[in-house]
Amino acid sequence: MAMTLDIARDNPNAPSVTASRPDAAQPANDQAPAAVIAPVMSEDKPPLIGLSREELADAMASIGIPEKQRRMRASQLWHWLYVRGVSDFSLMTNIAKDLRTKLAEAFSIARPEIVSELISVDGTRKWLFRFPARGAGRPVEVETVYIPEEGRGTLCVSSQVGCTLTCTFCHTGTQRMVRNLTSEEILAQVLMARDRLGDFPDTNTPQGAIVPSEGRMVTNIVMMGMGEPLYNFENVKKALLIASDGDGLSLSKRRITLSTSGVVPEIARTGDEIGCMLAISLHAVRDDLRDVLVPINKKWAIKELLDACRAYPGLSNAKRITFEYVMLKGVNDSNQDALDLVRLLKGIPAKINLIPFNPWPGSEYECSDWDRIEEFADIVNRAGYASPIRTPRGRDIFAACGQLKSASERMRKKDRDAGTAA
Ligand code: SF4
């Protein structure tokens, strides 16, 4: 059961952001109604989800589909997987029954197991998904967060289990790195969210769910969950190209944002090969401080990072880079920091997101006072940057920025602290 906390009382500036469909908002609970009951992934069959069209055609070849039919079969499967959202071959009614049986014997299109689904008082949802072992590994768990707002629903997707980086304000950074997620596992988070929200044809939105009042429920993807996406470039690229395919999930690349802590050598490739929006976890304006908050800075310092941003393919006023800046009391929140931030970003088409720090157990930082955040925002706004203060969302279920960590990891930590770990 999620710890409950009054978001509005905690943050008096929190706007009311959501419409509910079809009934009133429901309190936080961990027993959300199931919109779809899908077969659960197992490790014994290769997945079709996450394959490119060419790889799907190759998979058809492997089960003896004649060459002249392969592209057509791949297109049929693509439609069923990404437009209709089915997770069971038996539902693919325009494919002959014997072929459906053959496909089901050879491949998997199942979903991950849902370990938990938490719903915040503000409608934010956090899922803990379990994926089967790959090779010699163990099953792994990752968190995915859905943030509904008026007119949009943003899904925060994980790219790795744990993280090799150790950003000191981030809870995920305290979790050891287990492995990269595959393209299937990255896409499965999107498919599962759409299942649970009733965002595929012929599925229902759970009673009382807080979602955008019209249109799609998942309108935006941000690669800001667990992990550094640019340390898993190929799988992230593959998943995002499938998510933005116009004949499938069809999410505009303008609505897909990849956030990096600053893996400079991969930034140009992100623009050239994926073409999505870019966000940078900046958080400090001096190298000595950023070396501590975002230690990858020791490898690629602020100047190098910002030079890569200036050269980001497609950068324009219509396609700005978002700079994330977490507000840490007495650490990076002075007026001088705000002025230096403005100076540093001069000439880069940019947005600045100010993120009130979301504490987690054992964190060494405090959130800046609200007046301080507003004064900082005023300086940045006066310099011409739209710099919204990101309203804390889902804090009662530890779904806010920098708070993600798998439940099993939390349990292991609890056990270690209690001296009962294996
Ligand atoms: S902020 Fe991102 S890159 Fe840094 S530790 Fe957390 S998950 Fe890893």
Could you give me the name of the CATH homologous superfamily of the largest domain?
A: Aldolase class I
Strand order of the largest sheet: 1-2-3-4-7-8-9-10-11
What's the number of structural domains? 2
CATH architecture of the largest domain: Alpha-Beta Barrel
Q: CATH top level of the largest domain?
A: Alpha Beta
Class based on secondary structure composition and strand pairing: alpha/beta
- Sheet bearing the most strands, described? 9 strands, mixed
- Could you estimate the helical fraction of the residues in percent? 25-40%
N/C terminus separation = 25 Å
Q: Identify low-pLDDT runs.
A: 1-36
Question: What is the number of E strands?
Answer: 11
| Average pLDDT number | 87
Describe the protein in words:
- The chain is α/β, with parallel strands linked by helices and 422 residues long.
- The chain folds into 2 domains: 7-33 and 111-418, TIM Barrel (Alpha-Beta Barrel), CATH 3.20.20.70; 53-106, DNA polymerase, domain 1.
- It contains 12 helices and 11 strands.
- It has helices spanning 7-10, 53-62, 67-83, 97-106, 183-197, 233-243, 267-274, 287-293, 302-310, 335-344, 370-382, 407-418; strands at residues 113-119, 125-131, 140-149, 152-156, 160-161, 179-180, 220-223, 256-260, 277-281, 321-327, 350-356.
- The strands form 2 sheets. Strands 1-2-3-4-7-8-9-10-11 form a 9-stranded mixed beta sheet, covered by helices on one side. Strands 5-6 form a two-stranded antiparallel ribbon.
- Strand 2 (125-131) and strand 3 (140-149) form a beta hairpin.
- Helix 5 (183-197) runs parallel beside helix 6.
- It is elongated.
- The chain starts with 6 loop residues before the first helix and ends with a helix.
- It binds iron/sulfur cluster (SF4).
- Residues 163, 165-167, 170, 172-173, 226-228, 261, 281 line the site of iron/sulfur cluster.
